[in-house]
Predict the 3D structure of the following.
Amino acid sequence: MALPPLRPYQREPLRAIWRSVLAGEGQTFSVMMSRQAGKNELSAQLEVGLLTRFAAAGGESIKASPTFRPQALISLSRLLRRLHDAGLGTFAVREHGFSVRLGQARQRFLSAAPTAQVVGATASLLLEVDEAQDVALEKYLKDFRPMGAATNATTVLYGTPWDGSSLLERVKAEHLELERRDGIRRHFEYSWEVVAAANPAYRRYVEQERQHLGEHHPLFRTQYLLQPLSGESRAFSADVRARLAGAYPRAVGPRPGATYVAGIDLAGEAEEDPRQASRARARQRDSTVLVVGEVTPPLLPPPLIGRRLAAFPPGLRVVDLRGWTGVRHAALFSQLAHLLGEHWRCRRVVVDATGVGAGVASFLRETLGSVVEPFVFSAATKSDLAFRLLAAAENGRLQLPAGDDPDLQRAWQELALARTAVRPNGQLNLFVDPAEGHDDVVMALALALYAAEVTRPRAATGRPGTWPRA
């Protein structure tokens, strides 16, 4: 057997790293490749080469990942497979669950999580940092960078950009400045177009991802175009809002054979008490918002090559949207239960169960059964909702009805005011600045879309764009 051949864009940084290790130059490199372009394959084959080259003389390399499980373990498993491919599998020894030894050479895999205890390890040959955009700068400088100091080990950081200030992007900026001064290349960057030129199948894959996410989606920009995101920006541009505008009126009831889902964003109980504020202030308080939508089939790219249908989520055609301000949760129970269970007969209802919302979610679940899914907001779960909502808005899978009633006017106002802000660890915050308004409708839309994406329609009832008017 033999190692899989590397493509030209993989061989280019590998040669530079290899030369630095063999010559003891101690160079530091940064490598940005679009998602699934093969940076981990490059890393694994580099590790195989070093283990083979230094099996007799001895030496140690270290690879750090943001987490040990699963990221570091995935890299370890890939190395073992490549050693087997190279005919060295029977000679490789896995030690202590986190290192691989070939003769006197060793490759260790460590976690770069903030709480990981890694002090004392030494990299005499090579120090690698995978997904460096997700590794804290302080952790790298304090615990990992010194590992190669005694032997002047070569260092390489891999990953994709995020917010312009991550560890990887800081190192990239330093490298580009050094390259300008001395002409020695330290930064290697390959967007999806470069990879696609060497791999036509990859081009088809990314073009499908672009259709699925939208070219302006944060994930497509960072992971395929390799463009960093800037601090805060408006979430839904005028063009995107135009794609959200459906050419159908609000429905008055369910359509036979259609599948309906709902999302509910709940106001804080204290804020709902009308005795807490005047009518003027009540207009500024959070509201409980219900969004009901019809699940629509996925927008499949032509042709569907090598992709499972499940990879393309369904869409949501909003049919009912209403909000209540100054109404206590207890007063809404029966009305919500009637709308969701008897009127729309929703197959899934995702309810904000954060804080006092847990009581409402519990009541609805007791009344409606397992169709109700409580959803607890956290930085991570809200980020997931944001990515889903932005993708659906970008590619036309989410539509709002036509009309100018107060609830729809509020929805369009919130969508125009909504912002995104990047967070560490690849998370995204979707919000409306409190000085400008609230994000109740936006969150209810996100919850309803989530409900649609985990609920398949009962049967296909037509092609996108041919839905009958209610």
About this structure: The chain has two domains: 8-196, 231-453. The chain has 16 helices and 18 strands. The first helix runs from residue 8 to 23. Residues 214 and 395 are 6 Å apart (CA to CA).
